[in-house]
Amino acid sequence: MREQLEALRDDAIKKIEQAQEKKVVQEIRVKYLGKKGPVTEVLRGMGKLSPEERPVIGQLANDVREAIGKAIESKMEALEQAEIHRKLQEETIDVTLPGRPVLKGGAHPLTATITEVEDLFIGLGFSVAEGPQIETDYYNFEALNLPKDHPARDMQDSFYFTDELLLRTQTSPVQARTMEKYKGKGPIKIICPGKVFRRDDDDATHSHQFMQIEGLYVDHGVRMSDLKGVLQAFAKSFFGEERSIRLRPSFFPFTEPSVEVDVSCGICHGDGCRFCKQTGWIEILGAGMVHPRVLEMSGFNPNEYSGFAFGMGVERLSMLKYGIDDIRHFYTNDRRFLAQFKRV
Question: Which NCBIfam families does UniProt cross-reference here (predicted)?
Fold first, then answer.
């Protein structure tokens, strides 16, 4: 039995030294030291030995088990060190190489425009209000003095989910909802940026979806001159101090009187050119005094309160300011186009 134990020890240690993988070493551990291993089998046969031999063979068996265990532990440590060394060789990073530049993005031109306009109007005392893009027919049309049979609805025919739910055609519903929340008590001074949708053919100047910024100011004694002063401040800040505006009579169902607002051409400075169609002026937005009926439907007494409202297309503002000739550039995700606005 002594010779058998020593042979097992020598055989196990030899195989451990030859092993090149941790998996093989684990298999050797199980084979020699497991419950069904040869060392255990030898120990089970000790009952056949004489009382004098048992402690000697028992001590030898423990020594054999300990020797195999130490050999396994030493081999596992060596294999782990070899694995670490191999990874260090294969995964080495040459820190002497020059760093690769990380490409940084920038704000989308529409986002930059909205941010600039918001900052301007916040400076004038306005706050930013938002509302749902899926609107009810009431807030999108009826609360803005556009009953179901009004012909002006045809110009804003949109995407309907049901007879009463649609994708909003303007951000004006946010104004109606805000006025309702104030329950007939002013003042209200808000701008409403957001995405709107209209059934339209996409071309260089039209899109079935676009961004709008609308404004509303309701208080005692608000006049058309207040509207002109606010829009003049906006135009000079956004387009340049040398620019001026003019107001032309127009019609919108939710304002009375209504005006179209033009800004002087920045190319010809009012002399007339191809860009402004020889007029010296470029249309930028629509505006007017809030219709008494709209005030009344939102809970305000038109005999006590008055207000003005305006609405502008963000894409149009961006196109005029940055010389962009096609509205589709904003939505095609062309990196060559977007890269021009990193510093905007």
Answer: pheS
